[in-house]
Structure prediction request, 179 residues.
Amino acid sequence: MKEHYAEILRAIGEDLNRPGLKDTPARAAKAMEFLTRGYNQTIDEVVNDALFPSDSSEMIIVKDIELYSMCEHHLLPFIGKAHVAYIPTGKVVGLSKVARIVDMFARRLQIQEQLTVQIAETVKQVTGAEGVGVIIEAKHMCMMMRGVEKQNSVMKTSAMLGTFRDNQATRTEFLSLIR
Prediction:
């Protein structure tokens, strides 16, 4: 990857021997590995058996989970927050695991629409929840730094599964609690 970054820098007309760029190809390769580390994770590693028996059947929400991802179309960041809710049926997942699930999928080349669905489906699969709701709000550098250059635009996506899709009252409760 380091050699490819060096070639990109040469292709844009940069001098790789100037002091500020001497180690840039290696740093850029290391940064890209970090930004896409979700490819090297599995859901089993992320959850790490942190499922606990619970009699709760009330909505659980983890709100304002910051996320950093990379647009698969332009390789530019999108930055925002995720709100994840589920209604358990006999077991709950450790609180930090919800954020780790968000990170695992966000740290891959993505489109926000797919990221939202991946998180929802995975939380449902892991917990066996009666329903799952996920909303993501993010600013996309591909829209802010290039193209249309709209600085204040925010994209919102949602995925509603089970009772969050089928029951208007459940969806309304979720939406009111994340406001």
Summary: Residues 49-178 form a domain with the GTP Cyclohydrolase I, domain 2 fold (CATH 3.30.1130.10). Residues 112-127 form the longest helix (16 residues). The mean pLDDT is 97.
